């Protein structure tokens, strides 16, 4: 399969099953192994055939580090599934400590007996709806980027050289994502409490 065709397939697959809206999550209590199985079914696009995207150890570790709410007894709910899905997406960009900082206001509200509860399920649905709208033209943008790379290399000795085209395509895709990651990291640093620094002050 030519890389152009494979890239288009990846973009289509991402739009089809890479953005998890949580609608298929069961609204029942689950044990940790059932939670992992449910998440891996929904996030199967991110599996590599050798390991699953989510493990029981990951769920326990993220709970321990206050990135997702703890179970009620030994049971997890639909809220836990959505929290875990959001953390899974964030971990591709942020460290565990950064995710903990980002999630802290939500977790504080989720476990509070006094604050008006945030409708986390609706908020997550709005996030996903926004992402789907902004990414709807991903296949077209990717096709245009491939075309631009080919044109850029057309007057060089590397024209029609798949290795050069792929190198430039992969690099420019990463550089574009790095720009957005840079902004996200700076917003996190500016507006979300640094838990390590605050803990030292106490």
Notes on the protein architecture:
With 202 residues, the chain is mainly α. The chain has one domain. Helices cover 66% and strands 0% of the residues. The chain has nine helices and no strands. Helix 1 packs antiparallel against helix 7 and helix 7 crosses helix 8. The chain is elongated and about 65 Å long. The C terminus is likely disordered.
Keywords:
single chain, 66% helix, 202 residues, disordered C terminus, mainly alpha, 9 helices
Number of helices: 9
Structural class: mainly alpha
Total E-strand runs: 0
Q: Mean pLDDT score, rounded?
A: 91
- Uncertain regions spanning at least 5 consecutive residues: 198-202
> How many domains?
1
Fraction of helical residues: 55-70%
**What string gives the helices and strands in order?**
HHHHHHHHH
Alpha carbon gyration radius: 20 Å
Percent of sequence in beta strands? under 5%
Shape: elongated
| First and last CA, distance | 59 Å
- Largest sheet data: none
